[in-house]
Structure formats: C-alpha cells, structure tokens
Write a sequence for this structure.
C-alpha cells in the first residue's frame, strides 16, 4: 500500500522547519575626519564651499571629511567674510547658500 503524504499546514510551503537566525548586524567603519584645521583643508574650504548651492554643517562633514565643530567654525568664518548667506536659523541646523554677486 502506498502512503499518502500529508499536505503542509503552514503557508511557507514546508520550509518552516528551520528556525530563522538573527543576523549579526552591519558594522560601520569608524570615520577618520580631520579635527585640526591645517593649511590644505583651509584652502579647500575657502575655495570649494562658497560654490556649493546648499551649505550646512552635515554637508561639510560629508564632502570635506572634517569634524562637526570644525565645520561650524568654517561656516561662521565664511559668513563673516560675506561669501555665504544664511537661509534658515534653527537651533538644530543652520542652512546657508552661496552669496550671489548681483544682489546684496
């Protein structure tokens, strides 16, 4: 006599026998950002940042690989020189844009 196979009762198609294992999670590499403003970094900030359309602390950290406090100092320095102008002043995020030579 032939044995009849029982139909799987779960909706996963019979693969419910293996228990799902927890993943270890992804390991993010530690960022190696500059913490001291040296001459090449200063020259790069003064040359590149005024050409950005949207300037914020997080943009400088991401593009120029500098520390957060260094990015804040650079932004305030550029604003005092008049190379960038403030759009939004919020306690959490300051947003700037490049100064247009036509207006102001």
């Amino acid at each position: 006599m032939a044995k009849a196979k029982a139909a799987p009762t779960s909706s996963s198609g019979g693969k419910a026998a293996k228990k799902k294992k927890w993943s270890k999670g992804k390991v993010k590499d530690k960022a190696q950002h500059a913490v001291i403003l040296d001459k090449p970094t200063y020259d790069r900030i003064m040359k590149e940042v005024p050409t950005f359309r949207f300037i914020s602390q997080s943009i400088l950290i991401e593009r120029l690989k500098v520390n957060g406090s260094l990015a804040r100092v650079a932004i305030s320095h550029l604003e005092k020189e008049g190379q960038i102008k403030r759009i939004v002043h919020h306690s959490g995020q300051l947003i700037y844009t490049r100064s247009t030579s036509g207006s102001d």
